[in-house]
Amino acid sequence: MRETLDAARNSGKRIGFVPTMGALHAGHIALVERARADNDIVVVSIFVNPTQFNDPSDLKNYPRTPEADARMLEAAHCDILFLPEVVEMYPETATGNSQTIQLNGLDEVMEGRFRPGHFNGVVNIVSRLFNVIGECRAYFGEKDFQQLAVVRRMTHELSLPVEIVGCPIIRESDGLAMSSRNVRLTPEERITAPFIYKTLQKVKQLWAGDNADEVKRLVEEAFAAQPEFKLDYFEIADRDTLQPATQRRAVACIAVFLGKVRLIDNILLD
Ligand code: PAF
Which CATH number does the domain 2-167 belong to among 3.30.365.10, 3.30.390.10, 3.40.50.620, 3.30.2130.10? Predict the structure, then answer.
């Protein structure tokens, strides 16, 4: 991979990189299309990274659809599909040894609080992938808003030659944010799921810049009244620090179980 991409870079070509865990959907393809438009060569990796799963059953049940993924990537004019084995990405130990990177508390709130070790695993794998791919632009979806902030911070902290590009959330026509986990919803749950985005849209209307506690209470009550859902967290956070928001430029982030499936979503508040 490195030889191929070094040769391409030496002949003046620019590399666009989309790291994924597979089970691709239109959200991933939007990242590939953006990478296609901005660069000469598009590389997509598919690697279900064991070190970022805090729940072994989530890792076991994570959807894996490699043939369908390859067909979608071909149709989207991806040039190179990188499909490493666990032992290639983690040669010493399948659980991955972690480097300590100062993330300025970005990894301690929200997902970091509810999924211990998750961002350690993300930073671990993304830094290893960036080491393999080398100088490039790398594309991440804003659905994982906190991941995007963590990856930006890690790239800066390690001085990696990678420009991070965040891309807007892609939604189904009923508002549900596209996610590889959506295929695990039952038909009934799939009908109920858009309640998450509907609630976030209400939050956007209610947010006045200084009423986070009130909005939080309303959201918690709304989910408590829907027995199919179990709310992990709802937070209104500053977009840069991810600490509780104190002014208008904020993001509302939510994580909620619908049956056995954990879904996350967010909305920018202005
Ligand atoms: O967003 C994802 O799919 C994963 O967290 C990533 C960035 C590919 C790292 O494993």
Answer: 3.40.50.620
Ligand 1 atom 3: the closest Cα is on which residue?
20
Ligand 1 atom closest to Cα of 48? 10
Q: Select 180-268's CATH number: 3.30.1300.10, 3.40.190.10, 3.40.30.10, 3.30.420.10.
A: 3.30.1300.10
Distances (CA, A) of 228 to 149, 185, 261: 30, 12, 11
pLDDT tens sequence across 118-155: 999 999 999 999 999 999 999 999 999 999 999 999 99
Of all protein residues, whose CA lies closest to atom 2 belonging to ligand 1? 20
Helix (H) / strand (E) element for 121: namely helix 118-133
This prediction has a pTM of 0.96
Token pair, residue 74, equals 């071909």
